[in-house]
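ugh ok so i messed up the first submission bc i forgot one of the chains. this is the corrected input, ALL of the components this time, i swear. 228 residues overall. if the numbers dont match what u have on ur side tell me asap before i send this to the collaborators (the ones from the other lab, u know who)
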Amino acid sequence: EVQLVESGGGLVQPGRSLKLSCLASGFTFSNYGMNWIRQAPGKGLEWVASISSSSSYIYYADTVKGRFTISRDNAKNTLYLQMTSLRSEDTALYYCARIGTFFDYWGQGVMVTVSS
Amino acid sequence: DVVMTQTPVSLSVSLGGQVSISCRSSQSLVHNNGNTYLSWYLQKPGQSPQLLIYKVSNRFSGISDRFSGSGSGTDFTLKISRVEPDDLGVYYCGQGTQYPRTFGGGTKLELK
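and heres the new structure output, hopefully the right one now
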């Protein structure tokens, strides 16, 4: 069974940093592209970043480019999102999701709240 | 960026009824490889989104044949027949043809 489990969220002050993790199981992690998608409270879905299976290709939304870094460790079956210079508008539930041309499996999400 | 426009924003349906949700993209979603990466997701209350349909009309594993997707180019439709209580929630279309990936604003399906 495919499982994606996010962690690392919490309350953080504006301007600070936070690193999210997504532990994958039930499939060969190194064969799949992975993604971060977020959802602000009461809002729709916003794609954040994608990374290819070997980390050769990485893409970001303009809203996070230069502040967020997506990465992965295929030996640890883990996807990461390093978030710096956090803003109030980054407050959201962050999901990791598999593939990229469509998103077939999603984690349960991890909440990030940016507030002083 | 490709803008995805979903209509209607909300929909009321009786159990057993049929509904259609429209999704239009601001640019063609036909990829250079010939595939059209339009997908549909359902987010039930308090849950993560789940994939229903990918590449316009392909049902994901375990998805009922009551769900069907159609369309081409910039115009797409999701049809749900014989609506059941478990179908209620917010439906999103999404495109995977170009970066940045984008989603429609969502259509909330409620009981009449």
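quick check: Chain B touches chain A through 24 residues (CB under 8 Å). that seems consistent at least. Chain B has a mean pLDDT of 97.
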